[in-house]
Amino acid sequence: MLQVLTLNIAHGVPTLPVPLPFLLPRARLLGHLDRVAELLAREKADVVALQEVDRPGLFSGKVDPLERVAGRAGYAHVLHGPHLHFQGVCTRGTALLSHHPLREPESRRFDGVAHVDKGYVLAAVDLGQGRLLDVVSTHLDFSSEHRRQQQAVLIIEALQRRPHRPRVVLGDMNARRGNPGVPLEHMMKALALHTPDPGGGEPTYKAHAPRLRLDWVLASPELRFTSHRVLADRVSDHLAVAAGLEWLTSPRAG
Fold first, then answer.
1. In 3D, which of 58, 120, 119 has the Cα closest to residue 89?
2. Which residues pair with 245 in a beta bridge?
3. What is the pLDDT of residue 180?
4. Position 83 pLDDT exceeds 80
5. Among residues 121, 183, 194, which one has the least CA distance to residue 158?
6. Is the dihedral of CA 229, 230, 234, 238 positive or negative?
7. Alpha helices for the chain (secondary structure H)
8. Rounded CA separation 70/120 (Å)
9. Other Cβ atoms within 10 Å of 6 Cβ, number
10. Burial class (CB in 10 A: 0-12, 13-18, 19+), 77
């Protein structure tokens, strides 16, 4: 059994009334990051995918949100992709947190097909006894379906270059199901991924009054969903999605 979770943490701040971390008093910023960590610690996911997660700089209020959240939630294995980086100012991107070792790490900013800070991180989660699972945390473009389609192709190509093994793709896709041409459908078809909510499922955005399903957990055919929930905690402008997975066949190493 494997538990996974995805959450866009919105740079670790409540979106209202103050959307920028450097405008918050330090104690309030750290307190909000601790709320995110408490959610993760409560859910006890084996692997967590985060989006809009920063490293220390002027933008983050000189706080290290990733270190704070991972440390307080008890995650020993961390991979961060700096999809936007200005030395001393900001380092923004996606991340994986894991209770298991992360092997074969990759990080990519969507150069040329991105709006500001979009990209992915990818690693093989080592579950022991030769069991490896490729996991992706990604954040796709919010303003252009054409760019999202290009970005989905880059994720597909990255996974297809790796050894064949079970896969889970998590993140803020900024996409809804229903149109066969959308990037989400393209990625699911090309990689044979599935989700337990074929109609789209519960909305995840905006957290205070959710109307859109933008955050997804997609799994390969070797994996079956045993649970799938949108969490009610309002620690961001997105709601977290948590899922349980089990192998339909004996898992194997890549």
1. 58
2. 2, 225
3. 57
4. yes
5. 121
6. positive
7. 26-43, 65-73, 145-161, 183-191
8. 18
9. 27
10. middle
| Percent helix, strand and coil across the chain, each to the nearest 5 | 25, 35, 40
| 27 vs 32: CA distance, rounded Å | 9
What per-residue confidence (pLDDT) applies to 219? Answer: 97
CA–CA dist 66, 147 (Å, integer): 27
Which residues, in sequence order, are CB contacts of 209 under 8 Å at separation 6+? none
Confidence of residue 251 (pLDDT cuts 50, 70, 90): low
CA-based angle 95:234:52, to the nearest 5? 25
d(CA 37, CA 34): 5
CB atoms within 10 A of CB 254: 15
Residue 252 has pLDDT above 60, yes or no: no
Which amino acid type is present at position 228? H
Residue that wins the pLDDT comparison between 98 and 182: 98
Hunting for tokens 């069991």 — which residue is that? 131
DSSP 176: -
Residue with tokens 């297809």: 160
Backbone angles phi, psi at 50, to 5 degrees: -115, 145
